[in-house]
Amino acid sequence: MNAADWAVLLGTxxxxxxxxxxxxxxVRSLNTYMRGDAAIGWGTIGLSVMATQASAITFLSIPxxxxxxxxxFVQNYFGLPLALIIVCAVFLxxxxxxxxxxxxxFLGQRFDExxxxxxxxxxxxxxxLAAGVTIYAPAIIISTVLGWRLDLVVVFTGLLVLVYxxxxxxxxxxxxxxxxxxxxxxxxxxxxxxxxxxxPAGLGFMGAAHVAGALGKLQAVDFSLDPSRxxxxxxxxxxxxxxxxxxxxxxxxxxxxxxAGPSLRAGRLGLMFNAVLKIPMQFVILVLGAFLFVFYQxxxxxxxxxxxxxxxxxxxxxxxxxxxxxxxxxxxxxSAIRGWLEARASDDTAREASAxxxxxxxxxxxxxxxxxxxxxxxxxxxxxxTKDSDYVFITFILTQLPHGAxxxxxxxxxxxxxxxxxxxxxxxxxxxxxxxxxxLRPLIAADEARNVRVxxxxxxxWGAVAVTFALFAGFAENLIEAINILGSIFYGVxxxxxxxxxxxxxxxxTAVFLAAVAAEVLVVGMYFSLNIGYLWYxxxxxxxxxxxSLALQAALPPRRAG
Amino acid sequence: xxxxxxxxxxAEAEPPDLPGFRxxxxxxxxxxxxxxxxxxxxxxxxxxxx
Lengths: 562, 50
Fold this sequence. Notes:
- The complex is a heterodimer of chains A (about 550) and B (about 50).
- With about 550 residues, chain A is mainly alpha-helical.
- Chain A folds into 2 domains: about 5-295 and about 395-560, Sodium/glucose cotransporter, CATH 1.20.1730.10; about 305-385.
- Chain A has 22 helices and no strands.
- In chain A, helix 1 crosses helix 8 (about 150-200) and helix 3 (about 40-55) packs across helix 17 (about 405-440).
- Chain B has about 50 residues and is an all-alpha fold.
- Helices cover about 75% and strands about 0% of the residues of chain B.
- Chain B has 2 helices and no strands.
- Chain B has helices at about 5-15, 25-50.
- The longest helix of chain B is centred in the C-terminal third of the chain and has 26 residues, at about 25-50.
- Chain B is rod-shaped.
């Protein structure tokens, strides 16, 4: 990184944080602090919903997924548009009609206080942990590749987001989201353009797509019914529907984004904006990863993309031999790809098939050498994290982008981390204030100034918790999956609570409360004992909560069930 | 019925105010159709490049 990169990076992220702080420094109204500016437009709501969901992990891990496993991960988002339609038609009108600050207030009004506290508690545990991951994920990768101190990156990110989130609450979050999304889009478009320009002469977009496709990286859809496959159309549509419905319908970090605004129309259009754009956006990011795979068939690629980790262990001759074998494998793969491209242009079907088989074999050999490198690392130090796909895109950024653009892409990572963390902290602070603190101190609810002061303190407290968690916890190897797995374990049951509330009017508070606790125990038990795609836990948790609610409502005496 | 709930019911009945759409049901059908189109395009993309 040079001075230009530093200027772009710091100018962008500090500038946006300062703007958010300055514009909202006079916020005194509880409504503005927790719901945002009442005049906010649907476009800002849409961008805010998008920025909340797209964390830095999206832009670090997903290209890595495309590189390593292809673009099938896009199916994970197939349930999202359907879920957003349901949220627009059912959830959002109810939240606005009841004029709630949090989704869990609705549970309190529909059932009772213990069910409201259960919903809020599940959210606080799940989202509180996730906020730590949201800060840690980009920090560990950026600090590793740039040689920065991890603790300083974590603390810097945490302090920066707290400055404007504590000051301006939801209004500051929405204001800064617009600029963060602008930076993210500008950076990702820049990266894609540079990648296409750096592909070998004559290959072009279509050539790269054909190579990536032939090497199995462009299978976007898989209609297989095998339940052990992680990403299929069915897990995407059904599991993804429940995951998205839980996330957008019941997670306060999203609910707080779209209950803002002057009208129901603004919230609905903001959500529909995301329903239309989300799958194409994720597709483009995954294709970027698949094209990175093609790119690294033509330029010298590291045998292990977390090069700092590799250098730390790769001291003896065995590692040198693996490096040499990898260089040879890449050269063979490159030669085989060129051979296939020539055969393909010749219209000789038999030659094309033979060249294709050779190309696939060369690619598999290259992959086997990388697996050998990971095994060697694990043998040298069993604690080594051997999954390096999260480091692919950042390696490309640092080695291939021109100065200035490197700073912009790092600003993308920080903007994404700041925007999603800001929503999480604002939601955690709001939920703790409204659903827990005001529950314990009901007489103070009318004191608006004190409510805002308390909300600021809780937001700061959750920021401190997230930063502490990020500093001292170790996380799963694949960061985006870690968050999705965590979400899937909790979200299904929370969604079950809300679906019972909306659609099963005869079920009372005690029945649904006991059912939710039992369903959560069931999901956790299944997670530790079965090997099925984690998206199914959304469906299982939700279904268990609903079925058990109905059974308990029928079994319990009327007074207890209600 | 409170003034707030009357206001919100009016808001629910409020049209989307988008060119070509008179009701929210129309907007939802459009988004669902867009989703189906995207899945079809991704299937074609898979068949073309795999």
